[in-house]
């Protein structure tokens, strides 16, 4: 199985670490109807140690990914209105866990979110990690080699930036592909038979 490569490479990634850079990024993102969403947190390796706050918020337009460094002053408040805007759809995986983590940065009332886990279930997909859903739908593997790296580092490496961008981009790509009707679960070896009256037919799923 091939490993997913991020289209556009590092040139399609912008690190946002000031309110001024956030304003420029949001000018682009606010033009979108749908955005890929993900977060990263510095891992904790000591048993019993408190969990770190979210360090990075990834928002992908599809063509470009913006990495908001939430541990930098003013960045969370700058991006908060977009996260609360119900008119722009944000697509992520297990988003309620992200909401709980983001609220440790400040008050937040998220709106306009689609949880890819819930959406994938309507297509009879039961393996619901991003890595597995992507492999089922596209037959390619998302590398997780950077997952446990330091997301609070003074400077993010190119490998970290690409890894973080792929996750948000992949959420949006999966949603668009599924919603477009390009994946037929009845022809997939991963499909699970279900009884249905037609109301939840995955071939009729829209959002």
Keywords summarizing the entry:
about 210 residues, alpha/beta, six-stranded mixed sheet, two-stranded parallel ribbon, 6 helices, 8 strands
**Order of helix and strand elements from N to C terminus:** EEHEEEHEHEHHEH
Instruction: Specify the oligomeric state.
Output: single chain
Output mean pLDDT.
91
Largest sheet: 6 strands, mixed
Report the uncertain regions.
none
Give the distance, in angstroms, between the N- and C-terminal Cα atoms: 30 Å
Shape descriptor reads globular
Question: How many β-strand runs?
Answer: 8
Strand fraction:
15-25%
Could you describe the 3D structure shown?
- The chain is α/β, with parallel strands linked by helices.
- Helix content is 31%, strand content 17%.
- It is built from six helices and eight strands, in the order E-E-H-E-E-E-H-E-H-E-H-H-E-H.
- A six-stranded mixed beta sheet has the order 2-5-4-3-6-7, with helices on both faces.
- Helix 1 packs parallel to helix 2.
- The two termini are 30 Å apart.
Give the helices and strands, then pairings.
Layout: E1 2-3, E2 13-16, H1 19-29, E3 34-41, E4 54-60, E5 65-69, H2 75-83, E6 89-92, H3 95-102, E7 113-115, H4 116-121, H5 130-138, E8 140-141, H6 158-179
Parallel strand pairs: 1-8, 2-5, 3-6, 6-7
Antiparallel strand pairs: 3-4, 4-5
Helix pairs in contact: 1-2, 5-6
In short:
The protein is an alpha/beta fold and 207 residues long. The chain has helices at 19-29, 75-83, 95-102, 116-121, 130-138, 158-179; strands at residues 2-3, 13-16, 34-41, 54-60, 65-69, 89-92, 113-115, 140-141.
């Amino acid at each position: 199985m091939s490993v997913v490569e991020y289209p556009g490479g590092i040139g399609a990634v912008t690190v946002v670490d000031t309110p001024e850079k956030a304003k420029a990024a949001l000018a682009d993102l606010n033009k979108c109807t749908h955005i890929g969403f993900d977060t990263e947190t510095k891992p904790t390796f000591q048993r019993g140690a408190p969990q770190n706050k979210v360090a990075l918020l990834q928002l992908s337009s599809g063509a470009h990914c913006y990495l908001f460094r939430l541990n930098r002053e003013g960045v969370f408040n700058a991006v908060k209105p977009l996260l609360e805007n119900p008119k722009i759809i944000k697509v992520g995986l297990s988003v309620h866990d992200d909401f709980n983590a983001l609220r440790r940065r400040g008050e937040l009332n998220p709106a306009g979110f689609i949880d890819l886990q819930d959406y994938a279930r309507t297509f009879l997909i039961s393996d619901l990690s991003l890595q597995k859903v992507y492999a089922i739908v596209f037959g390619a593997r998302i590398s997780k080699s950077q997952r446990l790296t330091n997301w609070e580092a003074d400077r993010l490496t190119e490998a970290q930036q690409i890894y973080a961008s792929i996750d948000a981009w992949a959420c949006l790509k999966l949603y668009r592909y599924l919603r477009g009707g390009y994946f037929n679960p009845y022809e997939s070896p991963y499909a699970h038979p279900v009884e249905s009256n037609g109301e939840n037919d995955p071939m009729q799923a829209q959002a």
